[in-house]
Amino acid sequence: MRTSSKFLTIFSAFLCVLTIEAIVVKQESSLYGPYEAGTGHLAYWGLSGSAHLAETAIRLTPDEAAKQGSIWNNYAILSNDWEFHVQFHIHGKGVHLNGNGLAFWYARDPLTPGPVFGSRDYFSGLGIFIDTVENAAAPHNHRHPYLSAVVNNGSFPYHHDEQGTAGQIGGCHLQARNLEWPSKIAISYISDVLTVFLDTQGTETWTQCFRAVGVHLPTGYFLGVSANTGEYSDNHDIVAITTLDNIIPDKIWEDRSYLVPYAEYLEIPFVAEPPPKAEEGEATSSSLFGKAVYVGGIAVVLYVVYAIFKKYKAQKKERKHRS
Ligand SMILES: *[C@@H]1O[C@H](CO)[C@@H](O)[C@H](O)[C@H]1NC(C)=O
Q: Taking residues 282-303, what's their average pLDDT?
């Protein structure tokens, strides 16, 4: 509880420094421990999948394979400017073999389980992913754990097996596993600018992960956090959550409920078509190769027939000549 209010005060102060205009922060729904382990009921929030209340945290997944769990706010965000602060703790037995990670959402469809860190693919809205899996097989230019933010209008799949960063508007590397203290993320969405701050030291020292301008998100979406485990696992714990409505003086509220999520600047483009699976790829290339051999073979046969015919004609001509 103490941590939570301290967190808030620091952050409000931080905000005032950041913005010239004063912002009135209206606290909407906060969540902090101790929780009543086993009850499974929270005001304003819904749990799904493996998510359950432990004493000091909401455990989205235990440190067991193939689990997915999430927590979503029951009320849509109607404010144009908001903040989402989450204190989380990722920890497990694995030293290098662990997975998969956490996702922070501002999305149209809450409580929809799926493959993207425990939530649905082809999502509409904002997804901020903390991928804790070091995937040596995939080509990428960043270290893990890696935080990546994606704005999707529901038309693109999430490519977890590659870099998981298609459509990224910003990202950064962070320490996020097996730390003694919980980490904190502060997601700030003010005047179409999305900024993500992290405190991974447990010392109230905030660092900016990224700042993206020209991010257009509708009103009426839901805040949530989800996690999943695969073959390898981790405990994905949520220690505290705060959602804030920021009221900027003199700013006229806009009904943005019909806006399609859109980011003006992408760091990494979307992958339009999912790449063919390795087997399919081989099959296509081998059938192509087969076709080439077939066509080539016919050409060779035709040429040989032609050559023989020519030779035969020449011989016939020669014989005719001699006689
Ligand atoms: C969704 O995003 C893609 C890529 O930015 C774009 O081509 C498409 O038109 C968008 N759909 C809508 C409904 O805006």
A: 58
22 lines ligand 1 (CB under 6 A): no
8 Å CB contact between 172 and 147: yes
- The reply to whether ligand 1 has any atom less than 6 angstroms from the CB of 155 is yes
Rounded Cα distance, 123 and 314, in Å: 73
- What is the pTM (predicted TM-score) of this model? 0.77
8 A C-beta contact, residue 168 and residue 266:
yes
Tokens of 89: 């703790």
CB environment 273-296: b (16+ within 10 A), e (fewer): eeeeeeeeeeeeeeeeeeeeeeee
Burial class (CB in 10 A: 0-12, 13-18, 19+), 128: buried
Q: Is 260 in the pocket of ligand 1 (CB under 6 A)?
A: yes
Distance CA 113, CA 266 (A): 27
Mean pLDDT across the chain: 82
- Give residue 268 CA to ligand 1 midpoint distance, Å: 16
Answer for the pair 132, 90: CB distance below 8 angstroms, yes or no.
Answer: yes
Q: How many CB atoms lie within 10 A of CB 259?
A: 15
Residue 268 confidence (pLDDT) above 80:
yes
Q: How far does residue 215's CA lie from ligand 1's centre (Å)? A: 14
What average pLDDT does this structure show over 56-85? Answer: 95
User: CA-to-CA distance for 144 and 306, rounded, in angstroms?
Assistant: 63
Q: Is 39 within 8 Å of 18 (Cβ atoms)? A: no
CA atoms of 261 and 264, how far apart (whole Å): 10
Instruction: Write down the residue that tokens 């020449």 correspond to.
Output: 314
